[in-house]
Amino acid sequence: MKLKKLPLAELQESARVATQIALSSRTPLRQSVRDALTLGTRWEGDTAIFELYIAGAKPTDAIVLTETRVNLYDGRVEAVHVHDGAWGSVELGN
Questions:
Q1: Domains held by the chain: number
Q2: DSSP letter string, 27-60
Q3: How far from 5 is each of 2, 11, 74, CA to CA, in Å?
Q4: Range of the domain at 52
């Protein structure tokens, strides 16, 4: 029996909740920074990877703030990583 992948919206919701929990103890970002946030999605094996980032002039200039990995088949959050250096830089307005 072949396993069925969950809908992207369901995976994204799992990532959103996990990311929100991971960021709950941090100082909220300024509105101007929140307005610049982008959600990127990529796939690696059986995992959907959701990145919260600020786009740059070139893709290599993007500032990745968080990365959340979610299993495609059961929706389990495998990991949440907050890039502390990037977060601190953006948070402080540098």
A1: 1
A2: PPPPHHHHHHEEEEEEEETTEEEEEEEE--SSGG
A3: 10, 10, 8
A4: 8-91
Taking the alpha carbons at both ends of the chain, their separation in whole angstroms is: 52
CATH number of the domain within which 77 lies? 3.10.450
d(CA 31, CA 49): 25
Q: Does a structural domain hold residue 84?
A: yes
pTM for this model (two decimals): 0.88
Tens digits of residue pLDDT in 41-85: 999 999 999 999 999 899 888 999 999 999 999 999 999 999 988
Tokens for 39? 């959600």
